[in-house]
Write a structure and sequence with these properties.
269 residues, alpha+beta, Ribosomal Protein S5, domain 2, Alpha-Beta Plaits, four-stranded mixed sheet, 9 helices, globular
Length: 269
């Protein structure tokens, strides 16, 4: 069985408060994007195996979310071993949710492969054990996300017909670095209300709270955002805690020559 885990972008990201458990409460609109990895899962009577191609995956194999997802399903539902292959194309440390998407797809694909018949609510509960973003990719629909990311409310919202340009510079931003400069701000207009305004107005009303301090530390990110606007974007922003930047366009554009030495994709939404 083959699946294609997709990336997401954040349209706005408000950090609203710090929680007693040390995490932060946030609100954001998660929107799926057709930039994908590929996963193949095949049943086997032998040992479990996990191989990769594409972008080199850093870290110890046992920390990979795909392997963790398989172990949870294997331990709880007594499924047999599988041969799993991941082709990695969504960049790391980008705020695009690639690792979370991969884990969610493994859960969904194992559910189908072994006829477990688990509903989406149960699959989301499993996904939350792996990370706050993982549960979003179970239904994989535009959603209003709150709390640590575990509260997911699908919304009737579409950017169909527009194009997105994603730019990933050679910058890695760790989660501790991203949150270090955050000053939570409660009581702001809710993002589901703000996105109902014309996209051309978002520039003045929809913000990603991480940009303010991360742009100071990494001026390249601010420069990318400015170039996206100069190239005709109706709205440009950082996704998540970065370092990927994106711009929303009315027409397909080729901006690879504008961002030398960076990864650039243009996708229809």
């Amino acid at each position: 069985m083959v699946g294609f885990p997709n990336a997401k972008i954040n349209i706005g990201l408000h950090v609203t408060s710090k929680r007693p458990d040390g995490y932060h409460n946030l609100e954001s609109i998660f929107y799926p994007v057709n930039l994908t990895d590929a996963i193949e899962i095949v049943k086997t009577d032998g040992h479990f195996s996990f191989t990769t191609t594409g972008i080199t995956i850093d870290g110890k194999p046992e920390n990979n979310l795909c392997i963790k997802a398989f172990k949870i399903m294997h331990n709880h539902y007594n499924i047999t071993n599988v041969n799993m292959h991941l082709h990695k194309a969504i960049p790391f440390g980008a705020g695009l949710g690639g690792g979370s998407a991969d884990a969610a797809w493994v859960i969904k694909m194992l559910n189908t492969t072994f006829d477990l018949n688990l509903n989406n609510k149960k699959l989301q509960e499993i996904a939350l054990q792996l990370g706050s973003d993982c549960a979003f990719f179970i239904e994989n629909k535009p959603s209003y996300v709150t709390g640590r990311g575990e509260n997911i409310e699908p919304i009737d919202f579409s950017l169909k017909g527009r194009y997105i340009v994603i730019v990933k510079p050679d910058i890695y931003i760790s989660t501790p670095e991203a949150y270090k400069g955050i000053a939570p701000k409660p009581d702001r207009p809710a993002l589901p209300d703000l996105i109902r305004q014309p996209v051309e107005m978002w520039k003045n009303i929809i913000v990603n709270d991480f940009e303010k301090h991360l742009f100071i530390q990494h001026p390249t990110l601010s420069e990318i955002k400015q170039k996206l606007y100069e190239a005709g974007a109706d709205y440009a922003s950082m996704s998540g805690s970065g370092s990927a930047m994106f711009g929303l366009f009315r027409h397909e554009v080729d901006l690879k020559g504008l961002f030398h030495g960076m990864q650039v994709w243009c996708k229809e939404l």
